[in-house]
Amino acid sequence: MGTSNDTSVVKLVKNYQIYALGVLLLEIALGKPLDTSIVTSNVGAELKEYLTVMRLEKHGFAARTLGPQYGESVTRCLSFKFDTTKHDLANSELQREFYHNVVCQLEGCLKIMTEPV
User: Fold this and answer.
1) Is 98 exposed, middle or buried (CB count within 10 Å of its CB: 0-12, 13-18, 19+)?
2) Per-residue pLDDT of the chain (117 residues; tens, 9 = 90+)
3) Residue 26: which of 1, 3, 43 has the closest Cα?
4) Best CA proximity match to 13, nearest among 64, 69, 60, 79
5) Which Pfam families match (predicted)?
6) Residue ranges of the domains in the chain?
């Protein structure tokens, strides 16, 4: 996810670890690593990744590919959509929000995907 010298994305997101999970979940929906070549701007690798991710998110790619519940989890991670003003994962309020709105949702997706037809 970029180089250590390219820190601009860290400043753009509220919690980099949660954002990075969102990127990983999006790559799972894609079935491959991100293709950042769609961003033609002359910016660093990490910012290209961010712009690519936001473009895919804007068009609801994860939701279209793996369903709305999965897509909502991806959106929450990438855009930090939690009902809290806390951004540190050490905070119990954010931990509860993250568990309820991401972990439990993903568990629900897994259950749906693995149910016999």
Assistant:
1) buried
2) 444 445 578 888 999 999 999 999 999 999 999 998 888 888 888 889 999 999 999 999 999 999 999 999 999 999 999 999 999 999 999 999 999 999 999 999 999 888 887
3) 1
4) 79
5) DUF7580
6) 8-114
